[in-house]
C-alpha cells in the first residue's frame, strides 16, 4: 500500500490529468519546429507527476464523504492567515506557490480533510480540554537554556542557582538553541505553542522562578518564567471544538499517533477498493509484499 503523508506545507495545485485524453491528438502548442499534442502533453505529465497527482486526487475523493470540510471552516483558516500576515498576505500565497485565493482555498480544504482523517483516532478527554482552556487565561513570557544532555543541563542548572552570572548571560554562553544570542528569550506564548513537556514545566512556575532541567523532544531545558499575564478568553462552549482540534494536532506529532494516522489512511484507501486504469500506473494501490521472495541462494 502506498504510504500516505500529511503535508506540513501546501503544495502547488493539482494538475488534473483527466483533462487530457490519451487518445486526443489535438494540438495544444504550435512552434515553427513542430507541435505538441494533448496526447504528448498528457504522457509527459503522467510520466513526471502522474502517480503523485493521482494519489492526491484519489485521497480527496475518498475523504470527501466522511471528512468533508465546510466553507466556514476554510474561511476561518483563511482569516487566520490574513491576520497573521496582514499586508503581506498576497506575498505569502505566492511563496506557497499559489496564484490566487480560490486556489489556496481548494488546497486548504484538502489539507483540512487530511487533518480530520489523521486525527480521527486520537482521543481527547474533557479534562485535557479544561486544562488547555484554563491555561489560555494566562499568557507566559519565558526564557530558556537548551542543552543536548542531562549531564550538561545539571551543570548549567548549578551555575544558574549559584547566581554569579544572570540567566541571559548563561543562555548566551551555554544554550544550543536559536534563542541563545538573545539570552534565551522566547517571547510570549500560550498553551499548544510549545512542546508539551516544556509547556507543563513553564505553567507550573511562578513569575521569576527557574525550573529544574526538563526533557522535551528538543533536548534538555532550564526554563525561567519572566512574566505572566491574565488574558480574556471566549466561553469554553464556544471554542471547545477548536481546543479539541488543537490538542489532537499536537498529539499527532507523537510517533505512535503518526503510526495510527498512517493506518487510518491505509484502511480508507483499502476500503475504497481503488482500481487505477491509467496505463503504467495500474499497480499504484496494490498491496506491497511484506516479505521478499527468498532468493535461490538462500534456499541452498
Automatic annotation (TrEMBL):
GO biological process: protein folding; protein transport
Top class in the EC scheme: isomerase
Record flagged with keyword Iron-sulfur: no
Assigned EC number: 5.2.1.8
Domain of life (superkingdom): Bacteria
Biased composition (Polar residues): 246-262
MF annotations from Gene Ontology: peptidyl-prolyl cis-trans isomerase activity
Ranges of residues in domain PpiC: 137-227
Function noted in UniProt: Plays a major role in protein secretion by helping the post-translocational extracellular folding of several secreted proteins.
Family as reported in the entry's similarity comment: Belongs to the PrsA family.
Name of the protein this chain belongs to: Foldase protein PrsA
Organism, as annotated: Pontibacillus litoralis JSM 072002
Amino acid at each position: 500500500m502506498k504510504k500516505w503523508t500529511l503535508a506540513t506545507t501546501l503544495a502547488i495545485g493539482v494538475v488534473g490529468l483527466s483533462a487530457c485524453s490519451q487518445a486526443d491528438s489535438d494540438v495544444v502548442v504550435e512552434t515553427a519546429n513542430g507541435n505538441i499534442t494533448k496526447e504528448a502533453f498528457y504522457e509527459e505529465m503522467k510520466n513526471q507527476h502522474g502517480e503523485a497527482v493521482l494519489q492526491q486526487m484519489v485521497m480527496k475523493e475518498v475523504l470527501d464523504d466522511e471528512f468533508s470540510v465546510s466553507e466556514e471552516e476554510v474561511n476561518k483558516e483563511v482569516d487566520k492567515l490574513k491576520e497573521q500576515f496582514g499586508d503581506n498576505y498576497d506575498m505569502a500565497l505566492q511563496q506557497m506557490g499559489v496564484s490566487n485565493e480560490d486556489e489556496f482555498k481548494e488546497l486548504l480544504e484538502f489539507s483540512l480533510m487530511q487533518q480530520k482523517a489523521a486525527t480521527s483516532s486520537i482521543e481527547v478527554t474533557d479534562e485535557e480540554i479544561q486544562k488547555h482552556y484554563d491555561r489560555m487565561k494566562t499568557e507566559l513570557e519565558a526564557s530558556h537554556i537548551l542543552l543536548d544532555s542531562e549531564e550538561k543541563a545539571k551543570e548549567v542548572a548549578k551555575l544558574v542557582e549559584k547566581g554569579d552570572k544572570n540567566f541571559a548571560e548563561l543562555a548566551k554562553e551555554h544554550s544550543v538553541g536559536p534563542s541563545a544570542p538573545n539570552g534565551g528569550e522566547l517571547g510570549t506564548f500560550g498553551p499548544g505553542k510549545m512542546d508539551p513537556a516544556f509547556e507543563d514545566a513553564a505553567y507550573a512556575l511562578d513569575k521569576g522562578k527557574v525550573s529544574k532541567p526538563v526533557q522535551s523532544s528538543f533536548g534538555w531545558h532550564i526554563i525561567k518564567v519572566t512574566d505572566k499575564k491574565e488574558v480574556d478568553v471566549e466561553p469554553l462552549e464556544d471554542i471547545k471544538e477548536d481546543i479539541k482540534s488543537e490538542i489532537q494536532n499536537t498529539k499527532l506529532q507523537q510517533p505512535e499517533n503518526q503510526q495510527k494516522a498512517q493506518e487510518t489512511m491505509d484502511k480508507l484507501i483499502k476500503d475504497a477498493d481503488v482500481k487505477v486504469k491509467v496505463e503504467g500506473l495500474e499497480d499504484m494501490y496494490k498491496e506491497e509484499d511484506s516479505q521478499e521472495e527468498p532468493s535461490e541462494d538462500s534456499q541452498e
